[in-house]
Amino acid sequence: MLFESVVEGVWATGAAEVQLRGECSRCLEDVEAGLAVELQDLYLYPGKESDDEQAARVEGDLIDIEPLLRDQVVLELPFAPLCRPDCAGLCPQCGANLNRDPDHSHPAGADPRWSALAGLIEDIEE
Ligand SMILES: [Zn+2]
Ligand SMILES: [Zn+2]
User: Fold this and answer.
1) How many whole angstroms from 21 Cα to the centroid of ligand 1?
2) For a tag site, which of 31, 91, 98, 105 has the least CB within 10 Å?
3) Whole-number pLDDT of residue 113
4) Does the pTM exceed 0.90?
5) Which residues, listed in sequence order, are joined to residue 97 by a DSSP beta bridge?
6) pLDDT of res. 115
7) How far is CA 37 from the centre of its chain?
8) CA angle centred on 43, ends 40 and 46, rounded to 5°
9) Nearest 10 degrees: CA dihedral of 32, 34, 39, 45?
10) How many other C-beta atoms are found inside a 10 Å radius of the C-beta of residue 111?
11) Rounded distance, CA 117 to CA 112, Å?
């Protein structure tokens, strides 16, 4: 971070690298990704007037960049994180992870949700 003293306060600029942890929106596997964010904000000296009630302020001799960092990270967050761009997702029938089992398929009519019904039909036919 670079801190420059200006008339109203301290102008902070810098960059931060954060480590994100989430869940793939398709296959629900854990996803970890690095995110680089640019930070810049003006920290007003105590007592300085501002139109912005949320304006960041110098507190004592300290500057708290955490809220700034959090805001920037939230802005940059992907809406639907993916473990990889071509994630195959989950099997809609049994929930198997199709990335691990690309040839995964179900024989026609073997959907477990229908098996009870199939048994019933067999009973009727007998
Ligand atoms: Zn995935
Ligand atoms: Zn399946």
Assistant:
1) 13
2) 105
3) 64
4) no
5) 90
6) 65
7) 14
8) 180
9) 50
10) 14
11) 10
Which residues make beta-bridge pairs with 19?
34
Residue with tokens 């004592």: 60
Q: Encode pLDDT of 73-124 as tens digits.
A: 888 887 788 999 999 999 988 999 999 998 888 887 655 666 666 666 667 7
Which residues, in sequence order, are CB contacts of 60 under 8 Å at separation 6+? none
- Report, in this order, helix, strand and coil percent for the chain, each rounded to 5: 20, 30, 50
Q: In the numeric block, which tokens belong to residue 86?
A: 């071509």
Dihedral of alpha carbons 97, 100, 102, 104, sign: negative
Those residues whose beta carbon sits under 5 angstroms from the ion ligand 2 are 91, 93-94, 96
pLDDT in tens, 28-66: 999 988 889 999 999 999 888 888 888 899 988 899 999
Q: How far is the CA of 79 from the centre of ligand 1 (A)?
A: 14
Residue 20: pLDDT above 90?
A: no
Tokens of 82: 């993916």
Residue ranges of the domains in the chain?
A: 1-87, 89-126
Cα 27 to middle of ligand 2, angstroms: 13
